[in-house]
Amino acid sequence: MKFGKEFKKQKVPEWIDAYMDYSGLKQILREIMLHKLSRQPPTPLRAIKQKLKLHRTFSGLHAKSRDFVSQGDIEDQVIDVEALPRDGSGHFYRTNFLRQSEGGEIEEMFFEKLDQELNKVNKFYKDKVEAVRSEAAELNKQMDALIALRIKVDTKNASPDNATAVPLRTSTRTLDAGTGHIEGPGVDISKRSLLEESLDSSSGDLLLICNLTIGVDTSNNYQEGELTGGPEVSEVTTANCSSDCKEEENKCEDHSLEILEHVKINNTLETPRSTLKGVFKDSKDDELRFRKEELRKVEGQLRVVFIEFYQKLRLLKNYSFMNLAAFSKIMKKYDKITSTRASRSYMKIVDNSYLGSSEDVTSLLEKVETTFISHFSNSNRKDGMKSLRPKGKKERHGVTFLSGFFSGCSIALLIAVVLRIEARDLMDKKEGASYLVNIFPLYSLFAYAILHMLMYAADIYFWRRYRVNYPFILGFKQGTVLSYREVFLLSTGLAVLALSSFLANLHLDMGSRTEHYRKLTELVPLFSITIVIVIIFCPFDIIYRSSRLFFIKSATHCFFAPLYKVTLPDFLLADNITSQVQAIRSIELYICYYGLGESSQRQSKCHTHGIYNAFYFIVAIVPFWLRFLQCLRRLCEEKDAVHGWNGLKYLLIIIAVLIRTAFELKKGTTWFVLALASSAVAVAMSTYWDIVMDWGLLQRKSKNTYLRDNLVISNKSVYFAAMVLNIVLRVAWMQLVIEFNLHSLQKMAITTIISCLEVFRRGIWNFFRLENEHLNNVGKYRAFKSVPLPFSYNDEETEKDD
After folding, report:
1. DSSP for 502-532, written as a single string
2. CA 58 to CA 37: how far, in whole Å?
3. Region of poorest pLDDT, from 193-202, 308-317, 438-447, 755-764
4. Which end of the chain has fewer CB atoms surrounding its CB within 10 Å, N or C?
5. How many domains does the chain have?
6. Dist CA 96 CA 117 (whole Å)
7. Is residue 99 part of a domain?
8. Contact criterion met (CB below 8 Å) for 657 and 589
9. DSSP 182
């Protein structure tokens, strides 16, 4: 892969504008090359060389110029780079081009652009490093509080007779990177320079603190989380601590209490319990109770915080590496084109800049690894690094084979179903049509789910093709993201199950020999959906367990809105559920058939039950009501009026669905007019929100007419086609309001087709919604994952005064 493509692939989406403009500099180099070629005499031999150079501009395959060899080292005669001081932010670099007389105006423009890029990258990197240093300082304070809490919990849970024999906890020790020195929690971290010993300043148990206090040197006996050495060393250490720890224990405990006196546990309002506590207590802080459950909760939160912080440091390090490589590559290309050796001089400046010389990120990476392994992996480096650097998921050939196999089976089964229906003339007979009207809604549930999964597989394919960072946006853990092949495999597998069950139903119900097994054949749809439910909730590590758990978690957050904090996967799933109203009603039909005993009647009598009609209303508005509650939660937390308008949109849809459902059950001209008017208003506002707010299109001042500034698809007509298609499919949703004089089977077919079109529209919406999020972060979810910290300090003002 060429460096330009690799450089583009490695860019962090949020930082695209902060990277060096490699393509822009290459374009200037092309102009320099063409300028130099135009000045050469047009001899036949030179004409051939000129064509070769035009076709192999940057390939490096053409021979070096003889002039380059003969000129020798003339780098001092090409450029002169100055490092000028900047107000409190390092240096400002400026290059003076020394070959003005040779027609080097374009080259002067190249170095001016190069300096701009270097200064931009250098400043951005310095700002980000300072930000992570501040974050590391806060993490250091969090670790001191965790160590103090561990000491307090251990001391509180120790028996009175063994109060001094606190068990040794090697998992809570941290080594100072490179020195082997063990620091205690008593170090004043607020006065240490840039956390030189940040993230490694804590000992974790009372015994080690006593050793440090009485002067016992244990650093030489520390090896990979364990105190090792001869028996004499261990006996001396134990004896000293046994004799002196009684005197020092109170001091150690007092010190831990001194830290904990100024610490409270943050109520993050992310779970129903924390949300309710925050609402009724009118506070986001909880007093420490020094319980093991409390300690486990804090350790779990800090573990996640350290993992995310480590990933941020890795991205910063990769940012530095890729930009340094880009500067080196572009200067080598300049040397080849101009037959000079200016790269050596310029790269010295780049290497001496903050981007090339700072070791802060590397140092923090080492210290985070040391701290995480010691405190959160029981000093097991292999497990610790596995958590910090999870491996990516490998593609398997078996997935491709099974996808093709199930696809073929699905097509064959679909043909068999159609032939079976035609052979029995079920569409023409009254009894057959009545049978299909009763049995088809039970299997249409599978059709909606399969279509949705196929659209999701297509979305994944195009997200990957256009480098939309959907795993990070949706919050998938590395190594657990399903590929489009795997999603396609699941959808085709579900199709085989559904079509097999449907064909079995047709064969058993229509055969004269199976009349005695009529009760058994009635359970075929129930058996199929039971298999799906069992697979989804299966606790064993089979059939993509991590993805199933992720889905269950997001679905739980949706159904219990607004008790959970709203994240992008939660609202995205809730939006997709709003396109599955007919599927939810099919689930209600299952309950009516098998709960109320209507399956044995072979005709739909569910609407004769009052409780069924009541829930027929409710299930239609539940998805929109959940989205409305999510919008209210975000409005209360973020104080952004946009969420209020979004909630109003869903409220209008709820009103439209209620009136439309009432019209469907009661009929009448008045209900028809109300349903048509309310649906028109809901469709208009929803269409506007889809295109303008969710997709970010139709911007008047955009450099791409009526689109937006940044696009991932180069063909702009795709966006206009998507907008038109979205409007058409939104209007098709109103088709269900209009009453046609149709048979029940035909009406059911129209309803099914329109519902499938809505699922298709949602799949298109998903692609452009995540594309806009990827480029512009419109939902304000993605400016790096900010994981809430477990502790809050209430003595910050006192520390500042000290």
Report:
1. HHHHHHHHH-GGGGGGHHHHTTHHHHHHHHH
2. 15
3. 193-202
4. N
5. 2
6. 15
7. no
8. no
9. B
- Residue 786 maps to a domain: no
Question: Across residues 137-166, what is the average pLDDT?
Answer: 72
Burial class (CB in 10 A: 0-12, 13-18, 19+), 200: buried
Contact 650, 562 (CB under 8 A): no
The pair of three-digit structure tokens given for residue 640, joined into one six-digit string:
């952004």
> How many degrees, rounded to 5, is the angle at CA 275 between CA 269 and CA 280?
130
Cβ neighbourhood burial of 14 (10 Å; 0-12, 13-18, 19+): middle
Point out which residues pair with 286 in neighbouring strands.
Answer: 265
* Strand (E) or helix (H) holding 662: helix 641-666
Q: For residues 290 and 78, give the distance between their C-alpha atoms in angstroms, rounded to a whole number.
A: 68
* pTM assigned to the model: 0.75
Boundary of a domain, candidates 389, 416, 434: 389
Instruction: Please name every residue paired with 246 in a beta bridge, in sequence order, or none if there are none.
Output: none
On whether the CB atoms of residues 29 and 334 are closer than 8 A, the answer is yes
Q: Are residues 509 and 479 in the same domain?
A: yes
- Domain co-membership, 603 together with 716: yes
Range of the domain at 766: 397-776
Tell me the per-residue pLDDT of 13-41, one tens digit each, with 9 for 90 and over: 778 888 989 888 888 888 888 877 776 66
- The whole-number pLDDT of residue 759 equals 94
Contact present, 92 and 85 (Cβ < 8 Å): yes
382 and 421 assigned to the same domain:
no
Q: Based on the fold, state whether residues 61 and 20 are members of the same structural domain.
A: yes
> Do 514 and 583 belong to one domain?
yes
- Residue pair 274/301 in contact by the 8 Å Cβ criterion: no
pLDDT, tens only, 5-18: 888 888 877 788 88
User: Is residue 181 located within the same domain as residue 72?
Assistant: yes
- Residues 463 and 324 grouped into a single domain: no
Q: What are the structure tokens assigned to 534, written together?
A: 């069992």
How far lies 339's CA from each of 334, 484, 696, in Å?
Answer: 8, 48, 47
The three state secondary structure string of 384-440 is: HHHHHCCCCCCCCHHHHHHHHHHHHHHHHHHHHHHHHHHHHCCCCCHHHHHHHHHHH
Between 152 and 695, residue with greater pLDDT: 695
Q: What angle do CA 767, 772, 774 make, to 5 degrees?
A: 95
> Do 447 and 308 lie in a common domain?
no
802 falls within a domain: no
Answer whether residue 799 is part of any domain.
Answer: no
